Task: inverse folding
């Protein structure tokens, strides 16, 4: 077994080799299942061990791939996925195709370009607790919209809009504290955060789901002010 161990130690699987190994493993598995119990013979131990090692390596690689998720601000973020629904109403109206290359997200240079492409009537937020030096505007194929305002390395606010509740509420699962906060008209929104404060607010305007998320904790008055500004658009 010394020579076998030395050979296995120096094996490096490329993507092409992995695909070939999968095909071979599937073929060998198929052959084994076709052999009846009385005719089955003891397999070659070296071959069986090689197949087992290859299968294990592929399973581990697959697990790492599936477990990988995008991170933003040290929090796990669920990326929006496209849906079959093409209906849309309210601020995010159905407009021209806003999908990028191969159906990917579409980036816009400013909010006017986003409004023109989607038929929306959004405005840049003015009640932010910092002066943004960078702004980004992205619309995904499903209509999910994400607008990001960035100041210094600790200043960031992300405004998300979608007709799909799960695309908005999934973000809140990263936080351990939640509570409802009332607005002046008696309506309320849900705030999410940690023991040190609230980082995120979620509400529904009757047509769309919205969220505001900060990199640092935001006070109740900041969240209220931004929500009132958005509702007035």
Result:
């Amino acid at each position: 077994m010394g020579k076998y161990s030395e050979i296995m130690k120096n094996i490096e699987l490329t993507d092409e080799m992995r695909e070939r190994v999968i095909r071979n493993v599937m073929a060998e598995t198929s052959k084994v299942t076709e052999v009846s119990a009385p005719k089955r013979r003891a397999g070659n131990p070296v071959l069986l061990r090689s197949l087992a090692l290859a299968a294990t390596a592929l399973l581990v690689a697959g697990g790492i791939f599936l477990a990988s998720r995008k991170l933003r601000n040290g929090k796990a973020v669920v990326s929006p996925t496209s849906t079959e629904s093409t209906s849309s109403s309210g601020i995010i109206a159905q407009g021209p195709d806003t999908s990028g290359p191969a159906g990917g997200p579409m980036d816009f240079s400013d909010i006017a370009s986003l409004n023109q492409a989607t038929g929306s009537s959004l405005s840049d937020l003015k009640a932010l607790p910092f002066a943004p030096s960078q702004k980004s505007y992205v619309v995904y194929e499903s209509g999910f919209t994400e607008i990001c305002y960035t100041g210094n390395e600790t200043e960031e606010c992300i405004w998300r809009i979608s007709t799909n509740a799960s695309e908005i509420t999934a973000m809140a699962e990263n936080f351990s504290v939640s509570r409802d906060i009332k607005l002046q008209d008696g309506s309320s929104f849900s705030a999410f955060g940690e023991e040190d404060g609230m980082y995120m607010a979620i509400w529904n305007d009757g047509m769309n789901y919205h969220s505001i998320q900060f990199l640092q904790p935001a006070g109740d008055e900041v969240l209220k002010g931004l929500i009132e500004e958005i509702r007035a658009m």
